[in-house]
Amino acid sequence: MYRPQHRAPIRRRPTLRHASVAAVGAAALVAAAVLGPSAYADTQSHFTHQPSKPGKPGKGKPAKPGKPGKPDNAGDDDAHDANGHHDPSATNGGKSLPGDVGLNLADLRPTAPPATPYEMPFPCSETWSGSTRSGHSPSVRAVDFNYPGGDLGKPVVSAAAGTVVTVVVGPNKPSYGQYVVVDHGNGESSLYGHLDSVLVSLGQVVQTGTQLGTVGRTGNASGPHLHFEERVGGAVVDAWFHGSRFPMNSSQASQNCGTVAVTDIPLAGDMYGGRSAEVMVYRKSRPAAFHITRSGVKERVIKLGVGSDQPVLGDWDGDGRVNPGVRQPSTRQFVLQVKRKKTMVRFGKPGDLPIAGNWDGTGAWEIGVRRSSSAKFILRMSDGSKQKVALGDANDLPVTGDWDGNGVTDLGVYDQATATFTLLAKDPMGTPFTIAIQFGAPGDVPVTGDWDGNGLTDLGVWSPVTAIFTKRGAVAPAGATGRVKKLQFGRAAG
To answer: Which of 205, 334, 354, 381 suits 126 as a labelling partner, its CA being 20 to 30 A distant?
Structure first.
């Protein structure tokens, strides 16, 4: 995701001009607007971070923090002063509190308890030792965790519920290496650095205990460990677990108990050619797979991709049925599958969210992305050209559908905070306008599909807490709601 996870609208068989469009969906893809962490390196630990090469004189100026909707320059090499020494104040984005850098933790006044109920970022009952040191970058309040029996490959789980707002993957990333940031609301977030593998996608909604990845030594790390930060407004603060401040340079057993290691991503589409859309989930397991509902029989399972991939549905061959697909964030590559044949298409940037639709109303579907930083849809047309459409804001989730039944896929967004869809449509004169429709509850994930097979895309939501799909009746300009239907399918996150 989501973020999350994205579903594609659904085009009907070629004999039906009025195509229904399935959900683009995307489990929670909030913009990586928050706290894009900075590059950094620890220079005073025998097991932690490996410094980068010294920078040239005059190049160690602090970077400006990222604006909302635009992540800071995460992944840059750590900055150095004119003499080639590591300069923690010159890191990009990873803020420290005033008077923090270069001091011992004992020299600092404790920060206030967080509003977020953090637990340790490891599975229940595991005992980990956490340490810091003077000069620990970007802050002496950051914690380096090690496991007595060896760290590499050990599971890393979310310290609290929230939304994945930053995912950086790639074997050669500097500083934090492969890392994840989870936004917990109230301006608070947590960061998990040097991961060996990443199992979540941008915009994915996670719960306390959801596995994010595995411990590694990527980036500026000379040995395996987890670099962990709790942040308020971008500044690193003291780590708290289970209601108590963590005593640095000590060992503690995790009380992060009780939730599943993976989270489903909801989707919808006509996969069987019956005109109406089926609901399904993309399960971030190993291997990852689409689980599709079937009336009166066991669910269908299509294995495709890995846990860090983003799902997308589309009619890739123009036969009127949707097919599965995934997008790999690190490579920007779509993998579109029809039966056993796979087509690869590279499009967008790593932080984009995948969508699909019939942008011209004819033939097979095309792909596209939504870029949270600019709040724009970028559509790849059938001739290879691009079309950009601005809609919503950075924190909205993308949806697609045929709102007017003309066979052309339309765009929309969903605001999770207010549970409001904003759909972009055109009047008979071709003038664009938007329709705002409130549906669902805050925190729900949007799902769109033609529930009744009439050629018009309907709205829906899926609750990560209850795993219940709630389908809404036909869209009307006045926002009237038809009959609401509920279906439980998938695994709840909690």
So the answer is: 205
